[in-house]
């Protein structure tokens, strides 16, 4: 049995192997670096970082309480109890903290800044509160229940390397560092062109030898997951002129 080429394929180049086709794509893409754009942080998910980022501040940015409890100066207290300390006020998360009065304790909540003069936080379950005085029998270890400034990340530390794909964790980290925008490579713009007169849209009434166009939707999903910007997705049938027209539109 003999076969003949499709009349629209006259003069076409010989078929490429899969490896050769992939190499051709890689070479072409390497010659067309995507431009760098500044994106709002909320729109940068899935984008590729265009520069290495350093931490502009410490995380946490200040000494703060890791628990709800009472800030005190443990180094100034005797080694054995019992202890009775009057309260000089309270510091909540989001407040600025005044200096702790000598011989006093300060009501403090999780995440609140540690007042100057305090060196330890005792958790609220370990004390008895009588009016404005806390009473407890055992002193916690010096520095207990405090998150120190820079404990998680120090200012100037490399945070993310150039070329990192930004996922939810990376976006959250940049937000914690106060980044409102980020320099990334523009999303690659991709056109998907299905070919084949037998292909019809999912949901259409199928006749004869027709089949539903599934590959286009498979590629749409894959490209969306990879962070590409799909600018076109259509079927060109088997007509050469239609394919050339859509290729020109896609450019």
Describe this structure in words.
The protein has three domains: 29-57 and 153-186, Molybdopterin biosynthesis moea protein, domain 2; 64-147, Molybdopterin biosynthesis moea protein, domain 3 (Molybdopterin biosynthesis moeA protein, domain 3, Beta Complex); 188-251, MoaB/Mog-like domain (Molybdenum Cofactor Biosythetic Enzyme, Chain A). The protein is built from four helices and 17 strands. The chain has helices spanning 18-30, 168-176, 215-226, 240-250; strands at residues 36-40, 48-49, 53-54, 64-65, 69-72, 83-91, 105-108, 120-123, 128-130, 133-136, 146-147, 158-160, 181-185, 189-194, 199-200, 211-212, 229-235. Strands 8-5-7-6-10-9 form a six-stranded mixed β-sheet, with no helix packed on it. It is elongated and about 90 Å long. The two termini are 41 Å apart.
In short:
This protein is of the alpha+beta class and 251 residues long. It has 4 helices and 17 strands.
Q: Structural class of the secondary elements?
A: alpha+beta
The order of strands across the largest sheet is: 8-5-7-6-10-9
- How many structural domains can be distinguished in the coordinates? 3
Poorly predicted parts: 1-7
Descriptors:
single chain; 251 residues; alpha+beta; Molybdopterin biosynthesis moea protein, domain 2; Molybdopterin biosynthesis moeA protein, domain 3; Molybdenum Cofactor Biosythetic Enzyme, Chain A; 3 domains; six-stranded mixed sheet; three-stranded antiparallel sheet; 26% strand; disordered N terminus
Architecture blueprint of SSEs:
Elements: H1 18-30, E1 36-40, E2 48-49, E3 53-54, E4 64-65, E5 69-72, E6 83-91, E7 105-108, E8 120-123, E9 128-130, E10 133-136, E11 146-147, E12 158-160, H2 168-176, E13 181-185, E14 189-194, E15 199-200, E16 211-212, H3 215-226, E17 229-235, H4 240-250
Parallel strand pairs: 6-7, 14-17, 15-16
Antiparallel strand pairs: 1-13, 2-13, 3-12, 4-11, 5-7, 5-8, 6-10, 9-10
């Amino acid at each position: 049995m003999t076969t003949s080429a499709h009349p629209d394929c006259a003069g076409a180049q010989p078929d490429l192997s899969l490896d050769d086709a992939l190499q051709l794509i890689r070479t072409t893409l390497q010659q067309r670096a995507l431009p760098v754009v500044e994106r709002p942080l909320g729109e940068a998910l899935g984008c590729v970082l265009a520069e290495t980022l350093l931490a502009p501040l410490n995380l946490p940015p200040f000494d703060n309480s890791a628990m709800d409890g009472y800030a005190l100066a443990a180094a100034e207290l005797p080694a054995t109890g019992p202890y009775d300390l009057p309260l000089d006020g309270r510091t909540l998360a989001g407040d600025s903290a005044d200096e702790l009065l000598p011989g006093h304790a300060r009501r403090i909540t999780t995440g609140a800044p540690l007042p100057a003069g305090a060196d330890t936080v005792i958790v609220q379950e370990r004390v008895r509160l009588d009016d404005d005085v806390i009473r407890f029998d055992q002193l916690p270890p010096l520095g207990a229940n405090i998150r120190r400034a820079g404990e998680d990340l120090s200012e100037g530390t490399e945070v993310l390397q150039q070329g990192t794909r930004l996922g939810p964790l990376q976006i959250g980290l940049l937000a914690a560092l106060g980044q409102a925008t980020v320099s990334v490579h523009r999303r690659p713009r991709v056109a998907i062109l299905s070919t084949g007169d037998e292909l019809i849209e999912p949901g259409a009434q199928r006749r004869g030898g027709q089949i539903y166009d599934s590959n286009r939707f498979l590629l749409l999903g894959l490209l969306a997951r990879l962070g590409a910007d799909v600018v076109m997705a259509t079927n060109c049938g088997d007509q050469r002129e239609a394919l050339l027209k859509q290729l020109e539109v896609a450019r």
